[in-house]
Each structure stands twice: as C-alpha cells, then as structure tokens.
Design brief:
Shape: flat
Radius of gyration: 26 Å
Largest sheet: 8 strands, antiparallel, barrel
Oligomer: single chain
Number of domains: 2
CATH class of the largest domain: Mainly Beta
CATH topology of the largest domain: Porin
Helix content: under 10%
Strand order of the largest sheet: 1-2-3-4-5-6-7-8
Strand content: over 45%
Order of helices and strands: EHEHEEEEEEHEEEEEEEEEEEE
Number of strands: 20
Distance between the termini: 36 Å
Length: 404
Amino acid sequence: DARTPGMHSSGAPAYATLFPEDTTARRPRFVHSVGAEFRPEYIPPTNLFLAGANAAGEPIERSLAAHLRYSLRFRPGSRPDRIYGGVYQGVGVSYYNFGNREELGNPVAVYLFQGARIARISPRVSFNYEWNFGLSFGWKPYDEIYNRPNIMMGSKVNAYLNVDFYLNWLLTPRLELTTGASLTHFSNGNTKFPNAGLNSIGMKLGLVYSFGRIDNPLLRMRERLLTPPFPRHFSYDLVLFGSWRCKGVAIGDKQYAAPDAYGVAGFNFATMYNFGYKFRAGVSLDGVYDGSANVYTEDYIYSSGGPDPGYTFYTPSFDKQIALGVSGRAEFVMPYFTVGFGLGFNILHRGGDLKSFYQMLTLKIGVTHNTFVHVGYCLKDFQTPNYLMLGVGFRFNNKYPRLR
C-alpha cells in the first residue's frame, strides 16, 4: 500500500478515525455566564480619618460589597481555552457599604474583569486568579466646609482596582462556586487632592451559572493536536498618552496643594521579545512632559498667630518639565487584555522632581490586532503617586496567531 504514513485509506489523517469530524464552525465560540458575589473585607487604618478622626469618632474598618457580573469564555476544549487556561472576561457592577454614608457615601463600581486558571487541583476544582479594573461613582469627597474630616478622598469618581485568588468548584456542568481572597484599592490617580486612597482585604463568595456549557474530552484531545506552535519574535509598541494631575509642594515639613491641575503628556516606545502566547518582555524608551514637575513657591515669614499670607506657585521653564527615561518591561498577555509592569530611570532631565526611579502598572485593551487602548499609572520610589497614562497604542511586527 503506497498510502502516506499517518493517512487513512480515504486520504484523511489517521486520527480522523478516532475523532469524528469537528463541528467547530457550527458550535458557538463562547460560553456566556452570569454570576453574583458577596465580598466582606477589612480596611486597614492607613490614615487618621479611617482610624477614627471622623464625625462618628469610630474606626472605619469594614466594607461589604455585592457584585452582579456577566462574563464570556472560550468554548471549553477550544484552542484559546487550552492555551490560556480557561480564560474568561466580562463586565461587573458592585455596590459598596463602608458604614459611613454621611462622609464616604455608598459608591457603585462599574468594571472590566478577567481571570484564568493557575492550577488544576482535581477534575472539578481549580485554583484561579482574577483582576478587576474600573470606575467607582457616588463618593462623598473632602469639602473644606461640609466634609472636612474626610482627608482621604478628594473626588466623587475614583478608580477601582481589585485582584482575587480563589478556588473554583464545578458543582454541575453549568454551576460553579467561587471562594477565596480579595484585595481592593480605590483612588483618583492623583488627579485631585486629597488622594490618600482606600485599601481593603477580605474574601469573596460567589456563584456562576453558564449557558450551554460544552466540555467534550474528545474535542479537547483533538484540538490539542491542532494547536499551532507559537512563532517567537520581536514586536514594537508605540504608546501616546496624556492626563492631568494635582501637585503638592513641600514647604518645611508640610505639603501645600497647588491650586491648579497640571497637564501630562508623553510616549513609550518598547521593543518586546514575545516568548510565547502569554509572556513578552523588553526595554522601553519613555518620554514625558509633566506640567507639575519642579513647580515651586516662596516661603513667607510671618508672626506667630498672625494671618497666613498664602502662597503663590510658580512654574519653571519648559526644559525643567521634560525627561527621557529607559525602563525594563514585562507583560502578561491574554485575549483582549495585556497587563504590564515596568521599572525605569530618567536619564535625561534637569533634576528636581524628574530625577527619579519610576514604576508603571499598565493595562492594554485590544481594539484590533495591532491597536489598543492604554491605561497606566506611574509611581516614584514605589510609594509616591505620580500620574495617570491614558492613551492609544500601535503594535508593529505582530506575529501572534489568530486563534479560533
């Protein structure tokens, strides 16, 4: 018989006799789910307001949140499902109660989320992670007259960030239970003072119901054979961003808030080596104009107990507000979203605020195969809030396979 090795007499691959004809084209690509969660959390007393310097005179140390969520995941056993560890993504809405409605409010958060499996413990139990990123509305911010004790939040709208590590229990083919730990952060990204932020740590308990869940082990085995190898390659990301920020200027041992909001603009050009479907790393050239950099004021001498003459804030020349830096980057790549980290130094600058070691946390939201929306935050020395980075990005020489 002159048949090619590995081929059936019909001319089809040999494994076609073991696995029936794939009907992927007729199967839905996604499984849709709805879920609900309850998250009780503890709030560490990171500032005087939380510790008890508020109208009630009591610590604010607990939060309760209820979440409603919609998510979609790739069909179990499909190529992207196998490569990305059962990845899922969706949108959620939550209601928070901190036990102090008069001074903090009961905010509502709207957010994107994504999660995946870290390890499979048994056929029905897995250890997963998840992140949430969005905006929270309905805060009662600091007001010099009506809400003076709240030295923590300066905005009615604040960013919402959350990360969870949890066990996922498959109760039935369509119903899942989630139990685990939850970490949450609220802040306004230094766009308005005060910006002490609120952090909490606690647990999550939830149920997820999936519609039309399909989990065919024969299909999983076949699609594993057909998963294309990843083409390792260099790609290049150009990001253009802008935002605004507030500035505190040190006078002696005190910080005084400048009355204006200052513009920020910049770019990143990163050369990244793509090691596989889920990880890339490289080096980035980072340029920034920070309108708040090196803003200064003059100190005043006045008699003890006398009226405070106030302060006038001065903006330095343009060359003292621009810098060029170099950073190392690492990115965790998943469908639709890429989470990145960066550590860098400014190498060209005129000193002062721009002589810094900076850190970045970024989220890239895919729009097309080669374009994305960029949301990032920059810190100094792992502790000092710097500025938001809101922009768009373009990827060149992108050789990621298009998986179906």
